[in-house]
Amino acid sequence: MLVKGPASPLLCKKLANQTDVETVEVQTQVFPDGERYVKIEEDIEGEKCTLVQTTYPNQNLLELFMIQNALKENGADFIKVVVPYYSYGRQDKIFEKGEAVSAKAFAKRIDIEADEFYSVDLHSQEIVDFFDITAENISAMTKLAEYSMGEKNPDLLIAPDEGAKDIVKDAALSVGLGWDYLEKTRIDANTVEIKPKNIDVEGKSVVILDDIIATGGTMTEAARQLKESGAKEVHAGCTHGLFAGDAKDKLGAVCDSFFCTDTIEQERSEVSVAPLLADLIE
Ligand code: R5P
Predict the structure, then answer these.
(1) Which residues form ligand 1's pocket by a CB distance below 6 Å?
(2) Do β-strands 156-159 and 183-188 pair in parallel, antiparallel, or remain unpaired?
(3) Closest ligand 1 atom to 192 CA
(4) Bridge-based pairing state of the strands 191-195 and 183-188
(5) pLDDT tens, position by position, 188-244
(6) Residue 173 — very low, low, confident or very high, per pLDDT cuts 50/70/90?
(7) Candidate of 182, 210, 220, 268 to mutate for ligand 1, largest count of ligand atoms within 8 Å of Cβ
(8) Sequence-separated (6 or more) residues with CB below 8 Å from residue 210
(9) Which residue, 169, 80, 66, is CA-closest to 116?
(10) Cα gap 277→12, rounded to integer Å
(11) Quick one: which atom of ligand 1 is closest to the CA of 189?
């Protein structure tokens, strides 16, 4: 059974259309004090269930835990948890003494009431090791590269920092495009510096790809550098489009276009991860 997490309604609909499984609705309510309520609408006792629920913003993470609990308490035989966007993944180690490793804290909570875990473009591959159950990270980068080829006709793909270098390289190779990367230093949560680099983009069209756009600081700075280096067109694509605060305005001011997948559903979700997840449902 596909359990349709309320945070991923369109993705669940696509998955239901692409597979043959029975679907289960989840009812949610918010109490007057803001606390949440979930109820599985079908009898799932003895069933093998795949729950698809993204975890941004925060209330969706809470609902994920509650739906897992509802599945367990009501006798599901097997619980596969598919989290299209795994929030808190960027705090995957202690950067400064005294901090929590949030990515591990939530992995431990998911572990308690699940048999398998899947996610898309986790912030780091190491996050799968935080789970005791089977955990797998699926990349949407090739899908983003294919979409870029079809819609943006780029001359090359660019990673905005070294962290994205390998995933962008693999994606570029999969579609037969050239690639390069920029060098980023993060100053604080809202500010990054990207060094000018000797990439030949004069008169070229480029797509910058990254796992996530949050404040948009990384992408706008990368796009600005590439435009200053003479790029004709700069497009920005990512798997997880958080677009916090005025990110869309900032991106719109410097990029020719920007897009993301449906791991977080919104108007810029131009690429679906449904084909990547469909095999997990059946
Ligand atoms: C960093 O390692 C990530 O891959 C992204 O580049 C970063 O989290 C994007 O954040 P922002 O949009 O706030 O610059």
Answers:
(1) 90, 160-161, 163-164, 192, 210-218
(2) unpaired
(3) 14
(4) antiparallel
(5) 877 888 876 778 999 999 999 999 999 999 999 999 999 999 999 999 999 999 999
(6) very high
(7) 210
(8) 159, 160, 161, 164, 168, 218, 219, 236, 237, 238, 239
(9) 80
(10) 10
(11) 13
